[in-house]
Amino acid sequence: MRAHVELIHENDYIWHVGELPHGEGRVHERRLSTDEEDGSSSLALRFDSDWGRGPGVPHADTEFFVRSGSLIYGGQEIGPGGYLQVPRGVPMDWIKIREGSSVLHWREYGDCGFDVEKAQWSPASARWENAVGEVTVVDSNDMEWTAAPTVGPLTPLYIKLLHRDPVTNFYTRLIRAHKGWSDHRLAHHPCYEEFYTLGGKMAYNFGDIDEGTYCFRPAGVKHGHFVAETDIDWIIRSDGELVNWYTTDEWVKWGGTATNYHEHDEAPVISTLPVRSRSRGPWSGDGM
After folding, report:
1. pLDDT at position 46, please?
2. End-to-end C-alpha distance for the chain, whole angstroms
3. 41-70: pLDDT as tens digits
4. How far is it, in rounded angstroms, from Cα 111 to Cα 39?
5. Most buried of the four, 1, 95, 184, 220, by CB within 10 Å?
């Protein structure tokens, strides 16, 4: 189970020695969000030397997104905007990340475990029996922005879909909002929503978003009152199909009219004070 984190800025967090077993090189990590029950983690990585790791099998659904520098996977090099996803139990090839690179890294439904023995000699036999899917390597710079469907009289957000699990609908995508985009409704979702801000500025009920701000919001937590002060880009992850359930005429602290969801079966949850870092300041309680 992960805590509600909204908002933190990456620079407010300390560096730890990176947990990337069987790798060679110096890497540090900032722990943006972790699940101490199953090992799921959202991490910002800093590579203080060239770093590499041979073939192996990850214990978790594993993702890398290059913010700066470069990553080489199996001989293919991807720079800023490059994305790699490896399902848990699926053998992955060797990987190398250049000194000075900044990379976002996620592990979902498992810890940092990494099996190397079989994968180095017989990758096919190393695959777990229950593993689903194959490795995905994407250069998002080669993708076109696609307008997202809107509900109500709103200008669209724009999407680059990096990966979607065909079974669970768990997805990772880039989102762009243009300057002036706004939505003053409060929404909640049946799945969690996580974002890292890649660039730009926006204000909303939990505070000010700028490059390096991060959020992990569990299912059911209301949020909204968005106003994009500049063009802004995020990388966003959700563990299911993200449906917007809107609340209007909300009360000062709790309640409101259920606009397009069942007021009892699909009601939002009351958030306790979320995890925030010092540069974000105290939260006003807006939106609850």
Report:
1. 98
2. 22
3. 999 999 999 999 999 999 999 999 999 999
4. 4
5. 95
Looking at residue 170, its amino acid is: F
Confidence class for position 1, pLDDT limits 50, 70, 90: confident
Would you state the structure tokens that stand for residue 191, as one six-digit string?
A: 């799945």
Helix (H, G, I), strand (E, B) or coil at 129: coil
In the DSSP assignment, the letter for residue 35 is -
pTM, entire model:
0.88
Fill in the amino acid letter for 164. Answer: R
pLDDT digits (tens, 9 = 90+) for 123-155: 778 999 999 999 999 999 999 999 987 766 567
Distance from C-alpha of 185 to C-alpha of 176, rounded to nearest angstrom: 19
Residues 6+ apart with CB under 8 A from 228: 177, 178, 179, 180, 181, 182, 200, 201, 202
Which two three-digit tokens encode residue 172?
């990772």
Distance CA(9)–CA(129), nearest Å, equals 40
Q: Which residue carries 């209301």 as its tokens?
A: 222
Q: Could you say which DSSP state residue 61 is in?
A: E
pLDDT at 278: 81
Residues 6+ apart with CB under 8 A from 257: 247, 248, 249
Right CATH for 5-141 from 2.60.40.1180, 3.40.50.300, 3.30.70.1130, 2.60.120.10? 2.60.120.10
What fold is seen in the domain 142-280?
Answer: Jelly Rolls (2.60.120)
**Where in the chain are all domains bearing CATH 2.60.120.10?**
5-141, 142-280
pLDDT tens digits along 241-269: 888 898 888 765 567 888 898 887 888 87
